[in-house]
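Field guide to reading this record: the first block holds the primary sequence, the second block holds the structure written as discrete tokens, and the final block holds curator observations. Each block starts with its own label. This record concerns CMP-N-acetylneuraminate-beta-galactosamide-alpha-2,3-sialyltransferase 4, catalogued under organism Balaenoptera musculus.

BLOCK 1 — SEQUENCE
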Amino acid sequence: MEEADESREEISAQMPSSCPNRVRRKCSLSGTAGLTGREGQVARGSRDDSSPQEPWHLRNMISKSRWKLLATLALVLAVMVWYSISREDSFYFPIPGKKEPCLQGEAERMASKLFGNYSREQPVFLQLKDYFWVKTPSAYELPYGTKGSEDLLLRVLAITSYSVPESIQSLKCRRCVVVGNGHRLRNSSLGEAINKYDVVIRLNSAPVAGYERDVGSKTTLRLFYPESAHFNPKVEDNPDTLLVMVAFKAMDFHWIESILSDKKRVQKGFWKQPPLIWDVNPKQIRILNPFFMEIAADKLLSLPIQQPYKIKQKPTTGLLAITLALHLCDLVHIAGFGYPDAHHKRQSIHYYEYITLKSMVWSGHNVSQEALAIKRMLEIGAVKNLTYF
Ligand SMILES: CC(=O)N[C@H]1[C@H]([C@H](O)[C@H](O)CO)O[C@](OP(=O)(O)OC[C@H]2O[C@@H](n3ccc(N)nc3=O)[C@H](O)[C@@H]2O)(C(=O)O)C[C@@H]1O
Ligand SMILES: CO[C@@H]1[C@H](O)[C@@H](O)[C@H](O[C@H]2[C@H](O)[C@@H](NC(C)=O)[C@H](OCc3ccccc3)O[C@@H]2CO)O[C@@H]1CO
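BLOCK 2 — STRUCTURE
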């Protein structure tokens, strides 16, 4: 009885003073009808905050508009999801906890659309067995072929000559993600989603330690050249990460040979000092088939293979990695690709350090041309993008 009295008293205390005593009950119910417990309390306001400055109908309106705002936000989010799924060139939401559906041979079909008539028979990595008995020697010099560097290469392949490991080979459908080094990975929270792919391809000396939330921690393959090799690979890579060397010049073979067989290091001939001591297991090392560089340059960027200029145009390591992924995988997603436009020249290009586009002036990369190539891949659905482009 006491309780009933108390609650009546509470309701009556919430009622607007404009309600005549007789109709107070009706007046109160019409205001917060259907709301119970905490909801009702929030809508009606607690006894203490029913101040004359904030009448109950005003609070009611605020509460209603809050719901309207939430509903609008939910609608906007739904439209964004629908839009990103329907447009291939926009970014793509990975569903947390769920593996991407994978269609066997899908990337291959897409690759033939992009590259036209190209050979799927090419091995991913150079191996002594393919090289020693090679019938037609390479037509091009490095980085598009091995012409003129055969002796050096054979010495390297005598030390390290391994194929795609069984753990990748045996996958029925290979879901791959190529992680570019772009700034748009910062605060992306994509780490968990990235770790879920079967094959995670990273580039150069891009760190994971300290950036796990945004870029993940799994690295299946890391593409690098001597000048971009991380000085401490054990910190950034997993024990089974494959370190895939992309050779641009004969000196690159020289460097890996001297490291792996602990010969005298040669310091000249590099545009930046590569590591002199490099703590890796030779079984982790692979040499990328220069065929992929040729395909990326010719089919994606229409670059001439022979270039008489001092600064030679070449694909970025990221574009090369996407080309490789289309060959190796069944599903290819990308993240962290895209450079700042001309209006944002001071924006950092990397997720892990502050450097700008200015640092790339001597690089021989045409980032606008590459953006068009990536857009084309997104448009035809050959790759999907986890970050925006
Ligand atoms: C000064 C310089 O030479 N910078 C080059 C650096 C540098 O040698 C290494 O980082 C050293 O560890 O390497 C490059 O590339 P970099 O190591 O910067 O980045 C790897 C790949 O990510 C993609 N990327 C990067 C930044 C960005 N804002 N958008 C992107 O799309 C690109 O596809 C890029 O290839 C390289 O190897 O291609 C290209 C850069 O030109
Ligand atoms: C995938 O390319 C790698 C990187 O992204 C490029 O930036 C880098 O470019 C260097 C270029 O290879 C060097 N050229 C030679 C012949 O070594 C160049 O060297 C200085 C230079 C400058 C102007 C004219 C001639 C030579 O330095 C570039 C970096 O600033 O190549 C990487 C692969 O090695």
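BLOCK 3 — OBSERVATIONS
Residues 1-51 have pLDDT under 50 and may be disordered.
Residues 176 and 199 are 5 Å apart (CA to CA).
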